[in-house]
């Protein structure tokens, strides 16, 4: 059927905020639902958790072919999941992640992801890291695709400590690819000097500034903060939205818009700067069988 005649699955909740959720059912995800701010979640996998939020499956990469192929149709047929979109490969330019050339990425896309467009699903690009090689990989992917890949939105990651740089980075991605953005990982994290991390107060400011910008930016469709887990596994623990017992904390309440848990300013000129985090370090997150693993690499 020509794409112009496809019936796109309807999105019933237009809130942008979501959860990058590696906890399976070991943590109660419903505690993030009290305000209606959270509308969706993903798990770096095709496996959902027990939730009424919209689930967004991910085709992680070569290692997930069997899992994705054997479960995706059942997931799509489950009306409770309310699946409307699919996420592509995770940080494909990184050796510790899906580790693909652009050409390999295109082959996987056309085999496992592209056919889902015919079911009315919106397709999100492979999500590169914020290392400079990430954007280059995505450009090469589109070149190799030609007209043979449907990409409805760009998925992307960013780690840093400067809210203004974050906003500029998003604007550059939108200018480059001319598609809506999903920021599926971001947090206030210093990879230049690992001993000099954002304080809790600085994270409150950083989250408020960046989240407020994305809520107001038409070209940002969705976002998910990295930290919806009791143990952030090497990322600044002050970025966590949960305490060590899996209960939503003050930052988590800020993220979901609980009154009184946000700063007064959403000025993007607030700069929380401890150095550029785009290089030489960046974080890589892998979820294998529900276990989150974080590795650090030097460019």
From TrEMBL:
Entry keywords, A to Z: Membrane, Transmembrane, Transmembrane helix
Domain spans labelled Asl1-like glycosyl hydrolase catalytic: 18-255
SUPFAM superfamilies: (Trans)glycosidases (SSF51445)
Transmembrane segments: 279-298
One annotated Gene Ontology cellular component of this protein: fungal-type cell wall
GO terms under biological process: fungal-type cell wall polysaccharide metabolic process
Any coiled-coil regions, as ranges: none
Cited InterPro entries: ASL1, Asl1_glyco_hydro_catalytic, GH
Descriptive protein name: Asl1-like glycosyl hydrolase catalytic domain-containing protein
């Amino acid at each position: 059927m020509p794409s112009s005649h496809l019936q796109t699955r309807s999105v019933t909740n237009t809130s942008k905020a979501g959860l990058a959720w590696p906890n399976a059912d070991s943590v109660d995800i419903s505690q993030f639902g009290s305000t209606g701010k959270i509308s969706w979640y993903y798990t770096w996998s095709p496996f959902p958790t027990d939730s009424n939020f919209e689930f967004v499956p991910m085709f992680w990469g070569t290692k997930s072919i069997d899992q994705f192929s054997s479960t995706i149709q059942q997931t799509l047929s489950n009306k409770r999941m309310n699946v409307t979109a699919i996420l592509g490969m995770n940080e494909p330019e990184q050796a510790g992640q899906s580790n693909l050339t652009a050409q390999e990425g295109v082959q996987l896309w056309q085999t496992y992801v592209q056919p889902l467009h015919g079911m009315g699903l919106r397709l999100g690009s492979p999500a590169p890291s914020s290392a400079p090689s990430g954007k280059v990989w995505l450009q090469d992917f589109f070149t190799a695709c030609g007209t043979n890949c449907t990409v409805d939105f760009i998925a992307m990651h960013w780690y840093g400590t400067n809210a203004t740089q974050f906003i500029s980075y998003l604007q550059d991605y939108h200018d480059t690819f001319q598609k809506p953005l999903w920021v599926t990982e971001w947090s206030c994290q210093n990879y230049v000097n690992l001993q000099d991390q954002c304080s809790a107060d600085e994270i409150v400011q950083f989250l408020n500034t960046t989240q407020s910008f994305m809520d107001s930016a038409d070209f940002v469709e969705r976002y998910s903060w990295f930290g919806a887990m009791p143990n952030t596994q090497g990322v600044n623990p002050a970025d966590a939205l949960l305490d060590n017992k899996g209960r939503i904390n003050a930052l988590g309440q800020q993220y979901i818009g609980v009154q009184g848990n946000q700063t007064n300013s959403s000025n993007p000129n607030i700069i929380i700067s401890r150095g550029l985090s785009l290089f030489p370090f960046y974080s890589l997150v892998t979820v294998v069988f529900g276990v989150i693993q974080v590795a650090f690499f030097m460019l």
